[in-house]
Amino acid sequence: MTLFSSLVPSPGHRFPGHEEAPSRFQYLGDWESKPYQVTLLPPETAPREAVTAVHSEHMLQRFEVACRQGPGITDYAPTYVTPSSFNDAFLAAGATLLCTRRVLEEGGSSAFALIRPPGHHAEPNASMGFCLLNNLAISARYALTQGVERALVVDFDAHHGNGTQAVFSDEPRAAFFSTHQENLYPFRTGHIEDAPHARGRILNLPLPPRSGDAAFSLIADQVLVPLVERFKPGIIFVSAGFDSHWDDPLADLGLSSEGYHAFARCLVALAQEFCAGRIVFVLEGGYNPGAVVAGVDAVFCAMAGLPFQADDPSPYPEPDIHDRLAVIRKLHKLP
Ligand SMILES: [Zn+2]
Predict the structure, then answer these.
(1) In principle, which of 80, 131, 313, 316 could form an S-S bond with 121, CB 3.0–4.6 Å?
(2) What is the 335 CA–ligand 1 centroid distance (Å)?
(3) In degrees, to the nearest 5, what angle opens at C-alpha 178 toward C-alphas 190 and 189?
(4) What is the CA(125)–ligand 1 centre distance, in A?
C-alpha cells in the first residue's frame, strides 16, 4: 500500500502579521525521521478546466486581477492575496488533484496533500476565509468524472467548510459531514439545521469549545460509521484542519494529536471496508506549527496502520455532547 503526498508550502503567499503563513509548514518535510514511507509527487499546476468545474470564470478573473494588483486584503476574514497567490493556489489545487489521480489509479493507496493556501471556505463564486481555491472540492468533483459513483467529504477543521458545502449543495453523488466549533468563523453557516433540502447527505455538527478526544470518538461511532454504511462512498476525502487542536491560537476545539490519530484510523478503516482503501486527506487550517506536524504524523501513521504516541493531552475538562449527537442522529435518520 503506497502513501502519496505532495508538498506545496507557497513561500510567496504571505502577508505581514497574518496567521496563514509559510511558517505553518516549518516542521513539515523531515521525511527521513518518520516511521512511515511517503512517495512524494512533484506538484503540478491544476488544469483550468478542473478548477472551473467548481469555480466560476468570473471569480477566477477577479482573483487573477487582485493578485496582479497585490499584495492586498480581499475580505474581512481577512483573506489576502499577493502577486504569487494565483499560481500558488493553482499549484495547491493541482497537487491535491495529482494525489487524487494516483489514489484512483493505484488500488489500496492513500494520500495526504500538504498544501497551502487552504481551500474549504472557498465558494463557487468567491475566495474567503484565508482560502483561495477549494482544493478538495476540485478533486472530489474530478473523482466523480472518473467513474467514482459517490464521494464522501469529512471536514474536521475547527471551522465550518462552507465552501465545500456550497459546491456540493445540489450534488446527490456527494455527501458532506463537517465537525466544527460553534459560533466561530464563518458564523452564518454550519448550524446543525443547515441545508434542510439535503438531510442525510449534508450533515453539520457544531461543537462546544474543548469538545476533545472523547467527543470525536463518539462522533466516529455514532455519526461517521452509520453515515458511511448508508451512503457507501467509492472514495473519502478529508478536510484535515489541525486548528481543532487544543493549543491552536485561532480556535478551541480541544483535540490532541492522539485524538487525530484515532479519528483518522476510523476514516482509514472505513475507506478500506467501503472504498477499496481510497482516501485523500487535504490540509486545511492549523496555526500552531508544532500541532500541525504532530497532526500530520498522526494521520500518516493511521494511513500506514502504525501506532502513534504523542504527549499533548488536552489540559481542559471536556463537555458532554450526547444530547447534540442525539439531535444530529435524529435529524439525518442515522441507523
Ligand atoms: Zn479552520
Answers:
(1) 131
(2) 30
(3) 10
(4) 20
pLDDT the model gives residue 1: 81
Q: How far is CA 175 from CA 95, 171, 203, 233, 243, in A?
A: 23, 8, 8, 8, 23
Residue 241: left (phi > 0), alpha (psi -120 to 50), or beta?
A: beta
CA max distance for the chain: 52
Name the band, by pLDDT with cuts 50, 70 and 90, for residue 105. very high
Q: Which residues contact 135 (CB under 8 A, 6 or more apart)?
A: 92, 93, 95, 96, 113, 115, 118, 119, 282
The C-alpha cell of 324 is what? 447534540
- Is 245 a residue of the active site? no
Phi then psi dihedrals of residue 278, to 5 deg: -75, 110
3-state secondary structure of 39: strand
- Dihedral sign from CA coordinates of 152, 8, 167, 75: positive
Q: Does residue 24 have a pLDDT over 90?
A: yes
List the catalytic residue out of 13, 55, 120, 121.
121
| Residue 107: per-residue pLDDT | 84
Q: CB–CB of 245/288 below 8 Å?
A: yes
Cα–ligand 1 centroid distance for 106 (angstroms): 31
Distance from the alpha carbon of residue 294 to the mean position of ligand 1, in angstroms: 16
Average pLDDT over residues 214-219: 98
We report the CATH number of the domain holding residue 301 as 3.40.800.20
Q: What is the mean pLDDT of residues 25-53?
A: 97
**DSSP one-letter code for 25:** G
pLDDT at residue 108 in the model: 86
**How many domains is the chain partitioned into structurally?**
1
pLDDT digit string, tens, across residues 273-317: 999 999 999 999 999 999 999 999 999 999 999 999 999 999 999
Domain that holds residue 208: 3-331
**C-alpha to C-alpha distance for 280 and 139, rounded to whole angstroms:** 9
